[in-house]
């Protein structure tokens, strides 16, 4: 059960498991519908196809164990042609609409970024709809920078901007709560 104004630390983060995929797709569909004001045909099928190409997957669960958010990154080359080569793609990041605004999206973003840095990737890429101001703000505050010109999203027919994140600057939060740089060093 999701409280009316949940704090991000009320949710447990854990690695995604194969059995979580359909719940994650459901969260993706509902979050997309909340963003777009309607359900769009093809969103679920497009999301399902990304789970087989994953290199990092984090799931947030509520006290009952239900999936309330997740972040999924896919292998390099699984985005668009103009993406930086050898960069994994943060292809899906979604929070149940009832938990949006709680800070959980930021927590998921930071965690999946740490996972990618820990795997030795030096940068990652994502694509965001340019009219999704909340997501654009989240990514920019977290150090993601625009890459190239906007392109039309193939399903939604709206402008999408590629963003890149230098993972050598990713921050790791240890058990004591202090922050230390993680990932590859120059």
TrEMBL record:
InterPro entries attached here? Acyl_CoA_acyltransferase, GNAT_dom, YpeA/RimI_acetyltransf
SUPFAM superfamilies on file: Acyl-CoA N-acyltransferases (Nat)
Query: Superkingdom of the source?
Result: Bacteria
Q: Name one Pfam family in it.
A: Acetyltransf_1
Name the Gene3D superfamilies for this protein.
3.40.630.30
GO terms (molecular function) for this protein are: acyltransferase activity, transferring groups other than amino-acyl groups
Query: N-acetyltransferase domain: which residues?
Result: 11-170
UniProt key word Iron-sulfur: no
Provide this UniProt record's keywords sorted from A to Z.
Acyltransferase, Transferase
This protein is called GNAT family N-acetyltransferase
- Organism expressing this protein natively: Oerskovia douganii
From the broadest rank down, the organism's phylogenetic lineage runs:
Bacteria, Bacillati, Actinomycetota, Actinomycetes, Micrococcales
């Amino acid at each position: 059960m999701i409280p009316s104004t949940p704090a991000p630390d009320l949710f447990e983060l854990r690695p995604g498991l194969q059995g979580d995929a359909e719940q994650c797709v459901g969260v993706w569909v509902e979050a997309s519908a909340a963003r777009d004001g309607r359900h769009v045909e093809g969103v679920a099928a497009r999301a399902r196809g990304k789970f087989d190409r994953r290199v990092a997957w984090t799931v947030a669960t509520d006290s009952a164990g239900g999936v309330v958010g997740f972040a999924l990154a896919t292998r390099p080359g699984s985005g668009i042609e103009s993406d930086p080569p050898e960069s994994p793609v943060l292809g899906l990041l979604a929070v149940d609409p009832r938990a949006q605004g709680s800070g959980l999206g930021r927590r998921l973003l930071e965690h999946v970024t740490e996972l990618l840095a820990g795997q030795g990737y030096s940068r990652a890429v994502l694509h965001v709809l340019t009219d999704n101001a909340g997501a654009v703000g989240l990514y920019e505050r977290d150090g993601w920078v625009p890459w190239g010109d906007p392109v039309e999203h193939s399903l939604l027919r709206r402008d999408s901007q590629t963003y890149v994140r230098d993972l050598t600057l990713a921050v790791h939060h240890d058990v004591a709560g202090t922050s230390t740089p993680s990932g590859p060093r120059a």
